Amino acid sequence: MQIAPSILSADFARLSEEIAAVADDADWVHVDVMDNHFVPNLTLGLPVVEALLKHTSLPMDCHLMIDDPDRWAPGYAEAGARSVTFHAEAARAPVRLARALRSAGARAGLGLKPATPVEAYADLLPEIDMVLIMSVEPGFGGQSFLDIVLPKVRRARELVREGEHSVWIQMDGGVDEETILRCAEAGADVFVAGSSVYNTDDPADAVRRLRARATEAANGCWWRPT
Length: 226
Ligand code: DX5
Ligand code: ZN
Prior knowledge:
CATH superfamily: Aldolase class I
Number of domains: 1
Bound molecules: D-xylitol-5-phosphate, zinc ion
Mean pLDDT: 97
Low-confidence stretches: none
Largest sheet: 8 strands, parallel
């Protein structure tokens, strides 16, 4: 069970301090790159990622909500992001792109918007390291969790299990202490949390509480290896 706080809900004027606040408790820092084309919002890009990489030891999980990831995503891996997720809806050649990310030393993630089915990507699972399943429409933090994606999480977990792939399933959007139980039970093992971590007085404690809830929910459940 891994927790990846999203700095989308952090103070953008103090990003390195905000990452440091969770560095002892989180597994990753999740960085949302938005280009105002793939999604109707604009955040940050490679120069900011490069600057933050110099100031944190937490592995960086870059979530690229951008058009033309085939062109832009490898640069994030080359800069030192340990995980780079591009969207299935935007990639022109997902297999080539995933291979480029891996050969640049990153884990390759495939992102799926709420209405994008996972089955179409079943044959790609050997080429990737993580499936990111959006549980809100991408673009903004603080939205309500969409329960309609839970059957897709379950199907993704079944595909991973049947094929014996070592692919993580990440849930992103509306994850909090209550919804994380349903996500973990359905089969997610990496949890992105923005507002439920950074819109609190104690982000580190919020991460610890999320991890405890996810671990509790997943113990002995159907998909956990015994
Ligand atoms: C939304 C981003 C998320 C966002 C989640 O498009 O991909 O990572 O930060 O924020 P919360 O946890 O507040 O829903
Ligand atoms: Zn994200």
